[in-house]
Amino acid sequence: MSELGKKRDVHVEDHSIGLATMKEALEFDPKKTAILTVDMHRGHLDMVNATMPALPEEATRVLDGASDFLKFARLHEMKVYHVVLTMREHEMADSLNPRHAVGGVTFSENTVPTEAQEQGLLHNIEGSVQTEVMPELDRQPEDYLLTNKKTLSCFIGTELEWSLKRNGIDTLLIMGINTNTCCQNAAFDAFNYGYKVVLLSDCVSSMYGLDLHQFALENVARCLGWVLTNDEAKQKVIDYEHRHHNVIQ
Questions:
Q1: Shortest CA distance to 43 belongs to which of 172, 142, 182?
Q2: 228 backbone dihedrals φ, ψ, rounded to 5°
Q3: SS3 of 244, please?
Q4: What is the tens place of the pLDDT at every residue in 77-103?
Q5: Maximum separation of any 2 CA atoms in the chain, in Å
Q6: Would you say 137 and 40 are in contact if contact means Cβ atoms under 8 Å apart?
C-alpha cells in the first residue's frame, strides 16, 4: 500500500507562540500594499453559475469578508488587483494538466451541484458569465483586472509582477479561491519575488475541502508569510498610519 493509502496518526505541531511573535512584528505601509483577489469570479462563488463551486456557506463567508476588507482597503489607498482564470474552449478540452486526462479533480464531499454543472458547462470559458468578478467586490475603475491567468499561478503569463513593481508595491494581501491551490501558489510566487505575503483568513476558502483550506493557512503562516483576520490586518494599517502621522479621517 502506498504512503498515501496508509492510515497514520500525525502530530499537529503547535507553533502559536512563534507565530504570535511574528504577527506582532509585522508592519506594512498601506501605500506600498496591494490587495490580490484570486479567482473571485462566478465560476467559483456564484451558486447558480459556478462550474467549480466553493461550498455555499464558505462562498458567503468569503464574499462578506472580501466586501468588508475591500471597502477599508480603498479608503486607505491600497491598490486592488483582480486576477481571473480565463480559458478558450479548446484550451480546456486539450488541457496541459495531466490530471484532467485521468479523471479530473476531487472536490469536497460536501460540494453542492449547481445549475451550470448540471448543464455540463466548461469552466471559465472566455466571454462566459463564469469569468465575471463577483459584484460583492464592487470593482472600481481604478482597480487592475488581469484576465489572462491560465494556471494555478497569478504571476506566470500575466503582467502582475510588472505592474506591482511599477506601482512600488512590496506587500501583498491575498484573498480568494482556492486557499490550497491558487491562493497558496500566489503566496509562494510572491514570496519568491520578495514580497511580504499576507493571507486574509476571512476571505479565502477551498472547494477541495476545509481540511486542505486549514492546511494552506498553516503552511503560509509557518513557511511563507502571515495569516491575518480582517480585523488584524485593519489594525496593522491603522497602527502604521498613526506611527507615521498619516491618519485617514
A1: 182
A2: -125, 150
A3: coil
A4: 999 999 999 988 876 655 555 555 555
A5: 62
A6: yes
Residue pair 231/23 in contact (Cβ under 8 Å)? The answer is no
What pLDDT digit, counting tens, does each position of 134-148 carry?
Answer: 999 999 999 999 999
Contact 161, 169 (CB under 8 A): no
Instruction: Determine if the pTM surpasses 0.85.
Output: yes
C-alpha cell of residue 186? 500566489
Instruction: Quote the CATH superfamily of domain 27-91+105-243.
Output: Isochorismatase-like (3.40.50.850)
CB-CB contact of 134 with 37 (8 Å): no
Rounded to the nearest angstrom, the gap between the alpha carbon of residue 74 and the centroid of all alpha carbons in its chain is 18
Q: What is the pLDDT of residues 26-45, one digit of tens each?
A: 999 999 999 999 999 999 99
Calpha distance 139→88 (Å, rounded)? 24
Q: Which residues contact 2 (CB under 8 A, 6 or more apart)?
A: none
> Can you tell me the distance from the alpha carbon of 218 to that of 158, in angstroms, rounded to the nearest whole number?
27
- Distances in Å between the Cα of 138 and the Cα atoms of 74, 121, 133, 243, 248 are 11, 26, 9, 30, 21
